[in-house]
Write a structure and sequence with these properties.
Elements lengths: L5 H6 L2 H31 L4 H9 L1 H27 L3 H28 L1 H8 L6 H14 L1 H16 L3 H23 L5 H26 L19 H31 L3 H37 L3 H28 L1 H8 L3 H14 L3 H16 L4 H13 L1 H12 L7 H31 L8
Helix pairs in contact: 2-3, 2-9, 2-12, 2-13, 3-7, 3-12, 4-5, 4-8, 4-11, 4-12, 5-7, 5-8, 7-10, 8-9, 8-10, 9-10, 11-17, 11-18, 12-13, 12-15, 12-16, 13-16, 14-15, 16-17, 16-19, 17-19, 18-19
Amino acid sequence: MKGDNTQLFERMPISKAVIALVIPTVISQIITVIYNMADTFFIGQMNDPNQVAAATLAMPPFVMLTGIANLFGIGGSSLISRKLGIGDREKARKCAAFSIWTSAAVALIYGVAMYALRPVILPFLGTDGDTYKYCADYILWTTAVGGIPTVLSACLAHLIRAEGYSKEASFGVALGGILNIILDPIFIFPMKLGVTGAAMATMLSNAIATGYFIALLRRNKGKTVIGFSPKHYSLGFGIPREVLLVGFPSFVMMFMGTFSNTVLNKMVVSYSNQAIAGMGIAKKIDMLAFAIANGMTQGVLPLIGYNYAAHNYARMRAAIKTAFAYSLAVALAGAVLLFTCAVPVVRFFIDDGETIAYGQYFLKIICITCPAISVTMMIISIFQATGQKAKPMLLSLLRKGGLDVPFMFLMNRLAGANGIPWATPIADFLAMTTGLILFIPYWRQVNQAIARNASGQARLE
């Protein structure tokens, strides 16, 4: 981490700036998905649908840790980038301390509560006698023991990106993912720990990634506003309200995604463990599309927020247009690839005929949402970067939980297991349509502000 990134935020050619921020973030997100896939892949090599099903059923509580990290990480990142845009480093420093310490405390409380309440929560998630113990062990290591490092590693990555250090942030995330891929087969096979070994590998890899971020920030203590000193922690200056309100849509998205996946899992597992194993594999593969969209939006958020706060709306507009174009092009290519290669991709994970049949069918349906996801996520990120609260919240609720759950019940009633996955594209395309309806008037305001700036200073609300 060298000095500040004023050159990147203010003067670097916009396509180069977007690529500099987005590429490392996308790579780290893809590696994160790959290590999630690695769990499924290595567990699947035991050809035990019950353990694959258990890893799928136990995933929602673990994913909520990402929701906690996004609540404080994205909310804090948005505020930090906007404060740096107007030169207020002291408030940016207080915001970072609030985000770090509060996220760690919430992760601890959440992890302990989830494990203590497992006799109630796990049956609700859809476990049975064949999967309960596997799920309980997975939650112990990933959520109870590993809760704090999982949340801190993701939260710190967001905050570091706010200062423009996308490569350093992405390296930390990638480090955790690569370590998990290395440790998975060691814990699962030679140590014969199965799904429990996969959970332990995840916990250890996130702990090491957190250690990297701590060492990085301590080494650059005088150059960054992000630190661990309690003296900078503050509940004043409107920091908690601003961080939580801006980050809450991302938290809600994860929470509603968890709720949606829980409903989906319970609905599909009622058909067979092979069905839920197939759905779990398809969802893991489709996470690549979400990872790419999420990486692009997270990467470009500081650039948009910085120039919004600095009233440089022309540069802000250019960043949005460039990021939109890149994200949509990659999403379209991903949808085509996953649709055409569904069968061999699912077979790569498990050699069980019934599971493969379910998995390839589910994947072909849900992958067609890739373009819609990229558009919706970019719009949500733009609203978050500019400090808006209600619009990203609405889109987050619509995309997961608000629309797809009702359609799951409807499609299940109409077509059974084959109908359930159709709820995903229906909900995502409706959310994208709503997002465009909200975004187009705001885009007109941006263009009007740029026109006014030609003759004098204008402020975009």
